[in-house]
Amino acid sequence: MKYEGKFGKYGGIFVPELLIPAIEELEEAFYKFKDDEEFMNELHFYLKEFASRPTGLYYAENLSNELGCKIYLKREDLLHTGAHKINNAIGQGLLAKYMGKTELIAETGAGQHGIATAVIGAKLGLKVKIFMGSKDVERQKLNVFRMELSGAEVIPVDMGSKTLKDSINEAFRYWISNLDTSHYLIGTTMGPHPYPSMVKFFQSVIGKEAREQILEKENKLPDTVIACVGGGSNSIGIFSGFVDDEDVDLIGVEAAGDGIDTNEHGATLTKGTEGILHGSLSIVLQDEDGQINDTSSVSAGLDYPGVGPEHAYLQSSGRAKYVPITDKEALNAFRLLCETEGIIPALESSHAVAYAVKYAKQEENKGKTIIVNLSGRGDKDMFTVAKELGVSI
Ligand SMILES: *Cc1c(COP(=O)(O)O)cnc(C)c1O
Questions:
Q1: Are residues 310 and 341 both part of a single domain?
Q2: For the CA of 82, the nearest atom of ligand 1
Q3: 222 and 165 part of one domain
Q4: More confident residue, 35 or 270
Q5: Catalytic residue positions?
Q6: Is 0.90 topped by the overall pTM?
Q7: What is the 8-class DSSP label of residue 294?
Q8: How many Å apart are CA 76 and CA 348, to the nearest integer?
Q9: Exposed e or buried b per residue across 69-82, where buried means at least 16 C-beta atoms within 10 angstroms of its C-beta
Q10: In the chain, how many domains are there?
Q11: What are the tens digits of pLDDT across the range 318-359?
């Protein structure tokens, strides 16, 4: 391997020996093609023409007036398939193609990453296999149908909790037996090196654009950048544009579910401890015996018991701060953004909006310029929101 893939003490490579050749091949290809003009031109072509980049940096004037801060929204919700996940799916899909692979493997919980992978597979002419916990297949029928319409094969995983963490194990297993033909397209900044660095590279377009856009609109950098954290990809993407600017505060927002027993929700960095999960050392939610906890949040995309290793590092170094937001706070923010701006955010993104509201209301933050990464749109969440509000649709 060329690099260790460490962020401080976090990250690294903790996989079965059998996977090392695949990881080595992937590392070599990534570092080669990220500096290859033809690859990068093609990447930019698809980001622009297929996904609709650049996304706007939208001044939320009504919300700002209400809160007494300047709030800008980075509109990843306007991308094809409705969220930032497509940035990474395009990048890795194209990389797989340059590597001569014919098949993409992915795992998905709520289905959003499965859809992003399915559509880029269709576009680039690659076969797609999606591993999905059988419980999730049942809960997310509409998304399963969307994937199948794009030609993907959805494989229900009946192991363990029948949800995301078991489908990740299953996807790794399938990859080991099909290394020559397949690429495992991980959807967030987790996994063994080179995944955390590679996913960050493909998502850093968010931060690059946001930085240029805020300089153009405000003639200065923002005071604060806020993003929600599941595995950590939309947040690391936008943070990357500002991490070297010491004066810009970076805040990641995690899901605290019902707020009662937060160890059982997605608030990994707030509540977790050091551990190895899915190929790297990071902070994870686990019990005293090292068993990984089952998590539950209103937003399926934040419902993951681990977090990318670079976030563990940014927290330990103090460069970024991580805070919890409950389901209820997220739902209130969801409604506030709908009502003030006419924008329907994803429930994941609503966590970031909710913290921005809390933050703006604090006396010491009055008048600050804040960028909130609106990672996705809320169409997928209509049934969940209706149920939470006690409305039938
Ligand atoms: C998947 C998802 C997330 C969480 O994933 P990250 O890797 O932490 O970005 C956040 N927002 C939306 C809209 C998602 O679909």
A1: yes
A2: 13
A3: no
A4: 35
A5: 85, 107, 375
A6: yes
A7: P
A8: 12
A9: bbbbbbbbbbbbbb
A10: 2
A11: 999 999 999 999 999 999 999 999 999 999 999 999 999 999
